[in-house]
């Protein structure tokens, strides 16, 4: 064990923040640490939009499902998968970019996620708290219009950053044998392990909510996955120049 591992093991989503602002110097540093993340074939396909305009913040909070902390957090960043500058790079050399490939969508999205996780870890190392906001994809067209995103750019998620005004428990993760397989995929023991994990998560929710939430992990996932999952995303991504082939 070392301080880095302790930091990683202590990750919590923070949704209540102190009013204390974060300096632009710190934000710049966090984003530069994001740039230090691994990037597929050096494509560097992430662009970050720091949203400070209060009216835009209010709209983004609404678009994300009325998550008020999007509006009130000291800092809100939107992480975008961005292949636009790659088109520009091709144009600089009078080359026609072959866009629309599914692989490009995967690499740009993965690049963006790796970038953002570096930002999150760096923020937590400075005693800041973060929470990812996937809810901005609820109204992804509206978010894109609000932020003037061009073709080949799409918002993957947002991130609230600030000094924590709460200290929630660390949420227990799946048992390692469910996640770590050796040589091949096997789920022989997974159902038994999941049953035990369900008890852990039920106890966690009961403790965290003072008995108001009585739910296991499998119940939560089953309830989520019987519903449509943002079906508008496919048409949106195709309109942005992704997933065409």
From TrEMBL:
The keyword Transmembrane does not apply. Coiled coil: none annotated. GO terms for molecular function: oxidoreductase activity. Signal peptide: none annotated. Residues 10-163 form the Nitroreductase domain. Gene3D superfamilies: NADH Oxidase (3.40.109.10). Keywords: Flavoprotein, FMN, NADP, Oxidoreductase. Pfam families: Nitroreductase. Belongs to the flavin oxidoreductase frp family. PANTHER family: NADPH-DEPENDENT OXIDOREDUCTASE, OXYGEN-INSENSITIVE NADPH NITROREDUCTASE. This is Nitroreductase.
